[in-house]
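Co-fold these.
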Amino acid sequence: MSQTCIIIGASHAAAQLAPSLRQEGWEGKIIVLGDEAYLPYHRPPLSKDFMANDKNAEELLIRPQTAYDKFNIEFKLGVRAETINRDHKTVTLESGEVLNYDKLAICTGSRVRTVSLPGVELDGIHYLRDIADVEGIKEDVAPGKSAVIVGGGYIGLETAAALRKQGMQVTILEMAPRVLARVTAPEISEFYTRVHTDEGVIIKTGIAVAGFEGDKHVERVVCADGSQFDADLVVIGVGIVPNIELAEAAGLEIENGIVVDEYARTNDPDIVSAGDCTYHPNSIYGIRLRLESVPNASDQAKSAAASICGKDKLYSALPWFWSDQYDLKLQIAGLSQGYDQLVVRGDKDNGRSFTAFYLKEGKLISADCVNSPQEFMVSKRLILAGKVLDPAKLADTEVAPKDLLV
Ligand SMILES: Cc1cc2nc3c(=O)[nH]c(=O)nc-3n(C[C@H](O)[C@H](O)[C@H](O)COP(=O)(O)OP(=O)(O)OC[C@H]3O[C@@H](n4cnc5c(N)ncnc54)[C@H](O)[C@@H]3O)c2cc1C
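Predicted complex below.
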């Protein structure tokens, strides 16, 4: 009798996992459950090209319907999985419908962290996670009007760039002493502060938002120090939380995410998990971590598909990320936490292209490469090589990127 694999969540991880199942030899049914109305789509452009109206919703799709049809992958969209019963191997939907599975993949990703401040329910105040959010934001975009962005992380900065492009007056309010404090060195924060300021964005750091005021629609943001900022539009980007509740209620092991091994297997032999919601081992850094990135979701999904088919496909990729703001393409190789030396190559203080190498005990652990694709490629190899490097050579722009490898 044909077996059934159910995938919960229909985004980057699922879009890879489902076709990979076929490639690994799964002959049974594949059913993907997603609570959004769309086939899996590229989420990164939401704060970039889609926000700036350079792409429409149709162009965001990861694969067209025909590609899934070819693999005989069934989607149930606009439905939410409410519970998993591991004893009976069933998933119950919000509608009450019960689906049987032989194998289950949990790809529930993450959701925005919300704030409970006075006035947050006013019209014109938005979060940013899905197409519907951006469509809501777009209704409040108007040239010359004021936008306030709460949170100076990558999503906040990308949104600022996209809104400036559309002629809005943009202010970023960040509680930490600098933007990107959680993810980069102070030198990189300084660079992005300079660029955004040059582009006309006002950045206020060390400032706590206390609430929002307006009559039905937001009119201003009020801060704890008494300062106020006019706002016709507010976008809140203060991080995400993993969607682990479904797995947790089913008794799967949870710790900062759904705990999986290096093959994306949970503590239930019939259940795998991939993407933003997992807490997984990374052999390169020798730690467990939860990552919020598309390459992580896609690569881990390949291992998850193999595991479902009884094969071992190790997931041990070097984490990498990107961010697009204005004409700046930032590519980040590796994880910088724990670095003890920063080496900058290029004119970070005046130009718009440079690389920041993060070293630990002389070895490269991470690199932020702004408009420097060759340095990015080289950095990935240098991190994996794990050799002690000469900082002076890394910093010397006369040395070609490929010669850093020798
Ligand atoms: C604005 C924005 C910009 C980003 N930019 C970048 C970038 O530049 N580079 C990068 O690498 N990453 C970026 N990311 C992060 C990246 O999008 C995520 O890492 C990626 O989407 C993770 O994919 P996923 O499949 O694990 O989960 P998600 O994309 O979070 O998808 C999970 C899906 O499951 C659904 N779901 C959850 N629970 C249930 C349930 N019970 N039943 C049914 N469906 C359910 C959710 O609604 C969602 O549709 C960005 C994210 C955002 C929001």
